[in-house]
Amino acid sequence: ILPRESGQFIEKLSKNVKICDEKITNLSEKLFDELQKGNISPAGFSEHPCHPAANDAAFNWIFLVDTINFCFWSADGAHWEVNWKGTSYSGYFALCAAVNRAIEEGVNVTDPHVYSRWQLADLEHVLRGDNGVQLMLLPERLDCLRQVGERLLEKFQGNFANCVKESQHSAQKLLRLIVSEFPCYCDEADYNGERVSFYKRAQILIGDVWSCFEGQGLGAFEDIDSITMFADYRVPQVLVYFGVLQYSKELYKKLEMGELLPNGSPEEVEIRGCSIEAVERLRNRVKQLTLESGKSLSCNSILIDHFLWTYRRQCREELDAIPFHKTICIFY
């Protein structure tokens, strides 16, 4: 079942994670306020210096980055950092900076002819940290790049824009195409006898194309609102901070102790599924507030996810008190 339906299904049966509807009301009012101030909009993507301009080259840049957009934490708490144009970046933005640095150094890093033939040493060089910290799961990232690079060359003339064209402005069609053609994007689990899906990187890939092109040209999807939040390890942390998600004492204690949750375990599935359902409820409430106000503002789950994810980075010290769940996998 698709991510939205998966979220509903998981939330109904969840034992370790609950959604507090009172806090949904409180947070949706804050989101509506930010929406009115212009702080929640697709323009946020292109405003970041690490993100590409909305041109043809952006498709393969976004595809490369989202193929290896996972697992930026480390067991010892050290941050992997990359310096680019005088600024030090960590996490996802360090990945963007590393790709941009490689391009400036003359490596045609977004070309599948290049990255599908990489050896581990090539990837290690491109993703080298400037603070002596190495990113986790480099062999797995290399496997992902080889897999998608070969398939992109074989079926889509080496250009992710051709996948987007094939979807005919349907986000759901593109989602199905990505998870079927590129297996490393197929983020699913078994829960209570049902095959559920999260498709975090596949959905973020679609969301990034939409945001980069601000919903214009190939970035226009008539059903973009069918994409859910991107179930990772950071947005749930913010939802716990706002009281929207509530963890059982046992689960909270595990997270405080830094215990790893296996990918596909009931607790991990419940955190991710309830996060999807919580953001759907926030979106519906913000929609209602917008209608009541008579203002022509639009908000979807992608934009709410962007806002919450950015909030975590801006208020890092406050949020560090809330433990996040740690799962070692290629999906987020």
Short key terms for the protein model shown above:
332 residues; mainly alpha; two-stranded antiparallel sheet; 54% helix; globular; EC 3.2.2.-; hydrolase activity
How would you sum up this structure, described in words?
This protein is mainly α. The chain has one domain. 54% of the residues lie in helices and 7% in strands. The protein is built from 16 helices and 6 strands. The strands form 3 sheets. A two-stranded antiparallel sheet has the order 1-6. It has a two-stranded antiparallel ribbon with strand order 2-3. It has a two-stranded antiparallel ribbon with strand order 4-5. The longest helix has 28 residues, at 266-293. The model has no long low-confidence stretch (mean pLDDT 96).
Explain briefly what this protein structure is:
It catalyses: queuosine 5'-phosphate + H2O = queuine + D-ribose 5-phosphate. This protein is mainly α. The protein has one domain (3-319).
Overall geometry: globular
Structural domain tally? 1
Largest sheet: 2 strands, antiparallel
- Please identify the structural class as seen in this structure: mainly alpha
User: What portion of residues is helical?
Assistant: 40-55%
Q: How many alpha or pi helices?
A: 16
Main-sheet strand order equals: 1-6
Query: How many strands appear in the DSSP assignment?
Result: 6
Mean pLDDT: 96
Rounded to the nearest angstrom, the radius of gyration is: 19 Å
Could you list the spans in which at least 5 consecutive residues all have pLDDT below 50? none
- The end-to-end distance, rounded to whole angstroms, is 19 Å
- Helix and strand run: HEHHHEEHHHHHHEEHHEHHHH
Beta content comes to 5-15%
